[in-house]
């Protein structure tokens, strides 16, 4: 689902810089995309699919300038600078086939807002880029060609002869034939514009030939690191509401010496998540939540859980949840559950609101 898809903010910073270099004011980019300066500057941050799509629409408005200054053989170097684990994995695979398959498997480290399908026959392998975003990006040049350039460099790394067999078709087009020819000349392979599909096709002749510099032990170490990064991305894709509730539960289950109150708790959560308060509140609002309601909901859930642990007194539970007194906890619980904590504990937890 698109609301769980994200892109590394490194990509966003690059596209942001491209737009600024071509006279698009920063304020205009922030306003149209909803991407804040904070989100751009944080290390290892992710940008939502919706924000990324809005940014890509702006980039498409400058499509004829996209690859004007492209320099061959720089794509992999850029990946190494930004995503060293991924680059190392792609350049230390056992065969060209594995290098390509690893890109498809682990490219979500860079971004995961689109789809690439692999097809093959007896002589060729074809990769088709499919836009899964707004229809307006269906004829985008930046996204499919950006992926194809990386794939072409992977192919070149393993076999220059195979690189020479690359053929690319793109649904997008430049306004002039000269620009299209210039792009093909820069890349070193044919780029056919205004096609029905975005595809990259190449010869399979050497695709399974063992890579002479392959280091199996190193590959296993790098692969584990890449899997760890993917697992981290999955956790980052968890809605903010769930992340905050998990943080609050951890706070109540492992209390530290501080005065519990909404002001202090939101400060602790913001520190834990490295996020300014206004950003946290804004993102919660986008998910239809606010911190006070979320705090009370989580406290209520934890109160019900703790009341089932009969070795804990009501005073203990009150203290764990940060209430000023047992009486304050009892009032809170009765107001939410329409029954006293003690009766709930004793099995009379019948909630009939109103």
TrEMBL record:
<dbReference type="GO" id="GO:0000976">
    <property type="term" value="F:transcription cis-regulatory region binding"/>
</dbReference>
<dbReference type="Pfam" id="PF12833">
    <property type="entry name" value="HTH_18"/>
</dbReference>
<keyword id="KW-0804">Transcription</keyword>
<dbReference type="InterPro" id="IPR009057">
    <property type="entry name" value="Homeodomain-like_sf"/>
</dbReference>
<dbReference type="InterPro" id="IPR018062">
    <property type="entry name" value="HTH_AraC-typ_CS"/>
</dbReference>
<feature type="domain" description="HTH araC/xylS-type">
    <location>
        <begin position="288"/>
        <end position="347"/>
    </location>
</feature>
<keyword id="KW-0805">Transcription regulation</keyword>
<keyword id="KW-0238">DNA-binding</keyword>
<dbReference type="GO" id="GO:0003700">
    <property type="term" value="F:DNA-binding transcription factor activity"/>
</dbReference>
<dbReference type="InterPro" id="IPR032687">
    <property type="entry name" value="AraC-type_N"/>
</dbReference>
<dbReference type="GO" id="GO:0005829">
    <property type="term" value="C:cytosol"/>
</dbReference>
<dbReference type="Pfam" id="PF12625">
    <property type="entry name" value="Arabinose_bd"/>
</dbReference>
<protein>
    <recommendedName>
        <fullName>HTH araC/xylS-type domain-containing protein</fullName>
    </recommendedName>
</protein>
<dbReference type="InterPro" id="IPR018060">
    <property type="entry name" value="HTH_AraC"/>
</dbReference>
């Amino acid at each position: 689902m698109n609301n769980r898809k994200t892109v590394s903010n490194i990509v966003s910073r690059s596209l942001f810089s491209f737009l600024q270099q071509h006279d698009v004011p920063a304020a205009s980019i922030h306003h149209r995309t909803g991407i804040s300066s904070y989100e751009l500057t944080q290390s290892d941050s992710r940008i939502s699919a919706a924000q990324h799509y809005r940014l890509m629409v702006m980039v498409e408005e400058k499509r004829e300038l996209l690859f004007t200054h492209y320099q061959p053989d720089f794509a992999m170097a850029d990946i190494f600078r930004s995503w060293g684990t991924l680059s190392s994995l792609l350049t230390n695979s056992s065969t060209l086939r594995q290098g390509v398959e690893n890109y498809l498997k682990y490219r979500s480290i860079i971004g995961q807002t689109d789809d690439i399908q692999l097809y093959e026959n007896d002589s060729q392998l074809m990769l088709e880029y499919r836009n899964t975003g707004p229809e307006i990006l269906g004829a985008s040049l930046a996204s499919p060609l950006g992926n194809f350039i990386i794939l072409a460099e992977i192919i070149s790394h393993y076999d220059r002869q195979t690189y020479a067999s690359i053929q690319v078709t793109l649904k997008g087009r430049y306004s002039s034939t000269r620009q299209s020819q210039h792009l093909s000349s820069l890349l070193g392979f044919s780029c056919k514009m205004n096609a029905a599909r975005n595809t990259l096709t190449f010869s399979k002749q050497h695709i399974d030939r063992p890579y002479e510099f392959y280091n199996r032990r190193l590959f296993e170490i790098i692969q584990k690191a890449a899997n760890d990064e993917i697992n981290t991305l999955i956790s980052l894709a968890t809605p903010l509401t769930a992340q905050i509730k998990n943080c609050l539960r951890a706070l109540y289950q492992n209390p530290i010496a501080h005065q519990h109150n909404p002001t202090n708790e939101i400060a602790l959560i913001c520190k834990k998540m490295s996020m300014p308060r206004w950003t946290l509140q804004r993102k919660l609002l986008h998910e239809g939540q606010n911190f006070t309601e979320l705090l009370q909901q989580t406290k209520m859930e934890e109160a019900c859980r703790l009341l089932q642990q009969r070795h804990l007194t009501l005073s203990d539970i009150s203290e764990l949840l940060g209430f000023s007194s047992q009486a304050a906890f009892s009032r809170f619980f009765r107001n939410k559950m329409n029954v006293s904590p003690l009766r709930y504990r004793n099995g009379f937890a019948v909630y009939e609101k109103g």
